[in-house]
Design goal:
Layout lengths: L1 E3 L11 E2 L2 E2 L6 E2 L5 E2 L6 E2 L7 E7 L4 E8 L23 H12 L6 H5 L9 H15 L4 H15 L18 H11 L4 H14 L6 H8 L19 H12 L9 H28 L1 E2 L6 H9 L2 H12 L4 E9 L2 E8 L6 E7 L11 H5 L4 H9 L22 E4 L2 E3 L8 H19 L3 H19 L15 H4 L1
Antiparallel strand pairs: 1-7, 2-3, 4-5, 6-9, 7-8, 10-11, 11-12, 13-14
Helix pairs in contact: 1-3, 5-6, 14-15
């Protein structure tokens, strides 16, 4: 019997023949063992790891014996605290599936199911609950959403002849408003202030809205809500509405209009822990799943190596637009080469990109990097033209790197770090001050406890003075202060 690492083998793209997806190493299966097509195969755990274990049955001794063992992994190992995120360790008991459906039926938050069964180290998480609910919906709506509603109404009418229903499909259902579409393009697809103002005035005239008071008031305060007026400032791509939605989603399910101040503090801590868990999940995905990139796509390969999953997806979207543009050199002054990047479909859509050919520092008129923090298609097109194979460091924001949140102090349980790797001096100092303060608060009310505290501190001081200052960092062991006294 041969046991291999979960990351053994290489990714093989699925081949579709006449609508049938052929099964390969990366083909997923549904509950009935039937291959099904994955929506977006953008990452894989496969990295060609050679670690394996081979055992054979010895018929003479009637025992299984290990004949080959190789533990040379070519990738970071999943730590014990993260092992439940591995596919082989994930499992949803039947009771959890039933409770998930019951919560959905009663309009209760599905995310509460995991907390009922003990938190994150239980073999399933919120995503598994939502995925199960999605599968249930698909089975129930096998004939389509609208068709299922129609069948439901027919059954109700068969049971009760007095039950009446009517279905009407109007034209905001089949057609999108042209004005709405044009306004969106005007707001989000104009990169110069004069272009926005010109296009806005044209739209008002085309639709006879020059005298619309509400639209005129919006235009008067355009600098506070139209992105072109603040694209030079870093907002991680968020506008005012999105920032508000972010705050709402942070407290979603925890805070209501009847929540008092004390409950708010407790709920805020719970909401923060949910955010931390999501970040830990993303860290695991970024570290142990590899982006699927062709060998000759050097910029994408570099981006896959340094960026987190979500940021890489945005970077990949920008790279995919490179083929829709062409580049022209328009001048060189003092080592600064200017390029004009034009759309192949729309000649009017063009952007100037001045670039220092020595340092590769530059800026694009669209200011996507300044606003979002990710290189735009236009600069990337210039990089492709110049055969630049790696993203320059000054175009990589530290917050977008895979190890951006390597260290974190989150609660009384202690310092959360990257499973045994070195902690920075500042975080060690902050954590020690935090724990020392807890012990001091426990010892202050009693003279006996105070004497124990001082005696322990003196003993600790003597031990620390014997430790050389430049010794290698050791793994931090965090003890519960209550257990220490």
């Amino acid at each position: 019997m041969l046991f291999v690492c979960a990351k053994e083998g290489k990714y093989v793209a699925k081949i579709e023949n006449n609508g049938v997806v052929e099964e390969n190493e990366e083909t997923e299966e549904d509950g009935k063992g039937i291959p099904r097509k994955r929506a977006r195969g953008c990452s894989t755990v496969k990295c060609g790891c050679k670690a394996h274990l081979l055992i054979k049955y010895d018929k003479w001794s009637s025992k299984w014996k290990v004949t080959v063992f190789t533990d040379a992994h070519n990738h970071p190992l999943v730590t014990p605290s993260k092992r439940m995120r591995m596919k082989s360790n994930r499992h949803m008991p039947k009771a959890v599936k039933n409770l998930t459906k019951a919560f959905h039926k009663e309009n209760l938050g599905i995310f509460k199911v995991t907390s009922i069964f003990g938190g994150e180290h239980i073999g399933f998480d919120n995503r598994d609950c939502y995925n199960h609910l999605r599968n249930v919906r698909h089975r129930e709506l096998d004939g389509g959403d609208a068709q299922s509603v129609l069948v439901y109404f027919r059954n109700r009418q068969a049971q009760n002849p007095q039950f009446l229903y009517a279905i009407q499909c109007d034209d905001m259902y089949f057609k999108k408003s042209k004005f709405k579409k044009d306004v969106k393009i005007c707001i989000w697809a104009t990169y110069r202030k004069e272009d926005f103002e010109k296009r806005w005035i044209e739209l008002m005239k085309e639709n006879g809205l020059e005298s619309n008071e509400w639209l005129q008031q919006l235009y008067d305060i355009r600098e506070s809500w139209v992105s072109v007026y603040n694209r030079g400032t870093f907002f991680a791509g968020m506008n005012t509405t999105r920032r508000s939605e972010g705050v709402n989603s942070f407290f979603d399910g925890f805070v209501t209009s009847t929540t008092n101040l004390k409950e708010f503090v407790v709920k805020d801590d719970q909401a923060l822990k949910r955010i931390v868990k999501r970040e830990n999940d993303e860290d695991f995905e970024s570290e142990h799943k590899f982006r699927i990139v062709n060998d000759n796509e050097f910029l994408l390969k570099h981006g896959a190596k340094i960026y987190t999953r979500n940021v890489f997806n945005k970077f990949n979207d920008e790279m995919s637009g490179v083929f829709h543009y062409k580049v022209e050199e328009v001048g060189n002054a003092n080592g600064i080469q200017s390029f004009i990047v034009k759309s192949k479909e729309h000649e009017v859509k063009k952007f100037e990109v001045p670039l220092d050919l020595q340092t590769y520092m530059g800026v694009c008129e669209c200011q996507n990097f300044e606003f979002v923090g990710i290189l735009c298609t236009h600069i990337l097109k210039v990089f492709v033209r110049l055969d630049i194979d790696a993203i320059p460091d000054h175009f990589i924001l530290p917050r977008w790197r895979q190890k951006a949140n390597k260290f974190r102090i989150i609660d009384s349980e202690g310092l959360v770090h990257d499973d045994g790797k070195e902690e920075s001096e500042a975080l060690r100092l902050g954590h020690m001050c935090q724990e020392s303060t807890k012990l001091a608060c426990l010892a202050a009310p009693s003279n006996e406890a105070y004497m124990i505290y001082i005696e322990a501190m003196n003993d600790l001081s003597k031990k620390l003075l014997k430790v050389p200052k430049n010794t290698p960092n050791l793994n931090l062991i965090v003890l519960d202060p209550i257990l220490m006294i």
